[in-house]
């Protein structure tokens, strides 16, 4: 009687647990696995497409740096079309409208990038030119002297979009020293009709400025790394789902196989 009572008590404890397990929808793991696979695969494909896009930009930059320069005129330019193209423009610098882009370090020395508009020859239109780097000096309250060639000059360089490569913060510009640069901010401040791009000057005009332009890092390797992570996670979800489904199927067969010897043993006792 005591044995029967304890057996009934044990059954009363086991039954709610099994009923909870039965109440869980059988389709839930499959739906969760499909959702996880779809999301990780989509994220991996997106990162892969971004890597290909950055590779195309990198190739455009390399081709533009190697090509012969194209002439930039006063005709309104398409910034995206000319991006990373090698350009040549003739005109006259306007030092009164120059700005110094701060926090530019070269070989461990703090300095500025000298941004100056060039009035395109025989037109009222301007183009911004990053003439190069100049050291800041020990006393930051005294701005460096920048030599500017007088008269008509020819500038050769690479066209870039300053809002993407030089924008550091959203602070307002005041005075000749700026923390960041965008075409829109410069146009609004100086009230000049400028082309929607900036030229990184490559040719030497005898002004003493340093022009050590490094090849931009387009982040191709970073996007390939993210792609590998997302696809690895997708593969892990597939593996775990298949593993647990196989394990579940085997667990359903094992109790039936193990129950046969027990029934034979009970029949022998009888």
Question: Could you explain how this protein is built, in words?
Answer:
With 270 residues, this protein is of the alpha/beta class. The chain has a domain of 144 residues. The chain contains six helices and eight strands. Strands 2-4-5-8-6 form a five-stranded mixed beta barrel. Helix 3 links the parallel strand 1 and strand 2. Helix 2 packs antiparallel against helix 6. The longest helix has 50 residues. It is elongated. About 2% of the residues have low confidence.
> What average pLDDT do the residues reach?
84
Helix fraction bin: 40-55%
* Series of secondary-structure elements, N-terminal to C-terminal: HHEHEEEEEHEHEH
The global form is elongated
Oligomer: single chain
- Strands ordered across the widest β-sheet: 2-4-5-8-6
Largest sheet: 5 strands, mixed, barrel
Radius of gyration: 35 Å
Q: Please indicate the percent range of residues in DSSP E strands (runs of 2 or more).
A: 15-25%
Structural class from helices and strands?
A: alpha/beta
> Unreliable stretches, pLDDT < 50, 5 or more residues?
165-170
The number of E-state strands comes to: 8
What is the distance, rounded to the nearest whole angstrom, between the alpha carbons of the first and last residues? Answer: 20 Å
| Structure annotation, total helices | 6
